[in-house]
Amino acid sequence: xxxxxxxxxxxxxxxxRTGVNFGILKVQVGAFDGESLNSxxxxxxxxxxxxxxxxxxxxxxxxxxxxxxxxxxxxxxxLALVGQNQNSKTAWDVEGLMEKKLPNLGxxxxxxxxxxxxx
Length: 119
Description:
The chain is 0% helix and 50% strand. The protein is mainly β and 119 residues long. It has one domain. The relative contact order is 0.20. The mean pLDDT is 79.
């Protein structure tokens, strides 16, 4: 089965992947050409729009989880709502991420996601 979240190469977005920050709220929006080999949408010539709202409750993160881990350099607790639409096909998900330093013990990371689409 094809994945509706495609690999996107050509388009415009707010401040690259870093988004626009409003305190603990980060907003990312974009519009893309939709031409992707793994998109589940039959008519890939249609514009793909996408958006992401992220709340960073502890340390602020530039972008979204760029490093896969911060190895204890940051305490992260974030919640995100993500969505995209192309040719009346939509997908959305809710994501949660926690990475917490444990003094003299290392780091614990929990990452969870719920995804829904109408493909």
